[in-house]
Amino acid sequence: MSTTYVLDHPEKGHIEYSDRKRYLWMSSLFMPLFPMMGVAAYFLFDTQWALALPLLFSYVLIPVLDYLLGSDENNPPEEIVPQLEDDRYYRWLTWLTVPMHFIVLIAIAWFVGTQDLTVWSVLVLAITAGSYSGLGINTAHELGHKKPEFERLLAKIVLAVPTYGHFCIEHNRGHHRDVATPEDPASSRMGESIYKFVWREIPGAWRRGWAVEKERLARLGKSEWSIHNDILQSYAISAVLQGGLILAFGWIMLPFLAIHNFWAWFQLTSANYIEHYGLKRDKEPNGRYERCQPHHSWNANYIFSNIVLFHLERHSDHHANPTRRYQSLRNFDGLPELPNGYYGMYLLAYIPWLWYKVMDKRLLALPHINGDLSKVNIDPDRYDEITARYGAGPGAVAAA
Amino acid sequence: MGKFRCPGCEYTYDEDRGDAHEGYPPGTSFESLPEDFTCPDCAVRYKEDFEPVED
Fold it and tell me: Which residues between 1 and 55 in chain B have a beta carbon less than 8 angstroms from any beta carbon of chain A?
């Protein structure tokens, strides 16, 4: 069953489009519940090994399904996009995903606080919960880009789960402005490993987000240390939520939440790492960077990981139209394309030498780069090494 | 007083109303917005990209 959108266009004639993914989008709503499967399996099979199932799902099964199920051929015609945007069903899914993230963290914390578990099990659960609270940043990302105040409020609330209340401000006003430039702490550089990137990304993004909010509050004549600070509002919810968990379940929550929070942030680091690796916007004569083009983002048009991530992987259209809703994001031919979905690419990023082996050639072979290193965002610390290796142009890339 | 629209996402800056959330009071001219002003909704477009809106 699907809804058909119809339009009689003055030039293009009769246009009809059915969204075959309409009900598949519920996967994004239920995805945060996957950690509960591990807990259910623990009670069912009476073994702590079952707790690792959600991580296996994310990092093994999803990449395999992306490989097997392949690309997503659905693409709404541009003329139909306004009708898709107005269909409120899609909004309800993002709104309902918000409480899911709270439920999952509280449930896992309860489990950790009340069961007799080994240290390894607590570690696995903290990473699992963090991984799915990282998804909360994805939910906030979808909501925080939208114009209605209500959706921006929901974004602020859900960011309290991973304690990342500065994200929407930093991302919308900082990352989208500076994306694919050497100045952006949330765009990775060629030759920069994710373990180096994380030290630039997490503090850099925090500083930029705070600076943007401080500037806004200064215009309003208000202090950054006031209730009007959108970042502090979200942090306050985090303090109540995580403080409550510590009070309810005791000292074990301290290491559990520390690992959970870091792993949630690291999920965003992982996404930022793979989304713009090495891509660079040109500087124009007036000193501005050229407007962000579709070839300034890596895409992964795989159906499975997209339906659990609210289409995050159709990233070029997102950067061209940041306020566009997930159901309307389109794929285009000739975009920089990753060889697997995000979860598979995260794994690759965690093994830097393998990442470089797969991605550096792919980066330099992009049509707008074609081996020209002046068009690549390169890690300054590795500039000499990289130019020595690839400086001779496309031929050198093929031989390397 | 006029209106200026972001050609990317259609955010409209209305000089009569300003933008309370962004800290621009009613009556703030578009001209007087900071030179590094980017669209408050999409951040893709710079100040010079904004187009005047005809009423």
Answer: 8-9, 11, 21-24, 38, 40-46, 49
- A216: Cα separation from own chain's centroid: 25
Average pLDDT taken over every residue of chain A? 94
What does the domain layout of chain A look like in residue ranges? 21-358
Contact by Cβ (8 Å): A359, A390: no
At residue A393, the pLDDT reads 58
Total beta-carbon pairs less than 8 A apart between chain A and chain B:
41
Residues A179 and A188: their CA atoms lie apart, in Å, by 10
The C-alpha atoms of residue A221 and residue A203 are separated, in whole angstroms, by 26
The closest of A125, A168, A363 to A260, measured between CA atoms, is A125
Mean pLDDT, rounded, for A206-215: 97
- Tokens representing A26? 């519920």
The candidate with the shortest Cα–Cα distance to A130, out of A154, A156, A101, is: A101
CA A276 to chain centre: 12
Nearest-angstrom CA–CA distance, A267 and A175: 16
Q: How far apart are the first and last CA of chain A?
A: 51
Residues in A 198-237 with any Cβ partner in B closer than 8 A = 216-220
Residue B19 has pLDDT above 70, yes or no: yes
Greatest CA separation for chain A: 68
Q: Please list the residues that pair with A4 across neighbouring strands.
A: A18
Q: Per the CB < 8 Å rule, is B44 touching A319?
A: yes
Judged against a pLDDT cut of 60, whether residue A398 lies above it is answered with no
Q: What is the DSSP letter of A281?
A: P
Q: Where are the alpha helices (DSSP H) in chain A?
A: 26-30, 34-45, 53-56, 62-69, 81-86, 88-114, 119-144, 149-158, 167-169, 176-178, 194-219, 230-249, 253-275, 303-307, 315-320, 342-349, 352-364, 383-390, 394-399
ipTM score = 0.93
Nearest to A346 by CA among A58, A3, A47, A136: A58
Residue type, A290: E
> What's the average model confidence in pLDDT over A110-135?
95
Q: Which residues pair with A13 in a beta bridge?
A: A9
